[in-house]
Amino acid sequence: MLFPKKVKFRKWHTMRKNPLKVGADTRGVTVAFGSFGLKAMAPQRIRSNQIEAARKVLSRSIGKSGRLWIRIFPDMPYTKKPAEVKLGKGKGELEGYVAAVRAGRILFEVDGVPEAVAKEALRKAGTKLPVKTKIVARI
Q: Which of 62, 49, 41 is closest to 107 using CA atoms?
């Protein structure tokens, strides 16, 4: 799974609760490296294990001839308190890392495979993610 090698602060503030007020992304919205990409259509936090599950499906589907790019990285830590613990006593322990994705962001890109194979691989990878996705081609 993906996670940062080193962080300045172990725990972050929770950030904004309503991602709808943030709006669409302006960076990373075009297919830059490959021929086909998987685009996020809504804002969401994607965990590192979800990114890994999608990466495994993509790499198995495209085989050795294809090339894969992961355009997001989970660098934001999130915490969780154990079940049935009373309120207070501080913030919970570090649970994992997430990538905060806004609408329009390209998540994965593939190249070196036929169009049908690439679209089927990206469709399978999209089912592993908690966000609604769309397959886009390079312009």
A: 41
Give residue-wise pLDDT tens across range 73-119.
Answer: 999 999 999 999 999 999 999 999 999 999 999 999 999 999 999 99
**Domains in the chain, CATH or no CATH each:** 29-137 (3.90.1170.10)
Neighbours of 89 (CB within 10 A): 8
Closest CA to 47 of 116, 107, 1: 1
- The b/e string for 29-40 (b: 16+ C-beta within 10 A; e otherwise) is bebeebbbbbbb
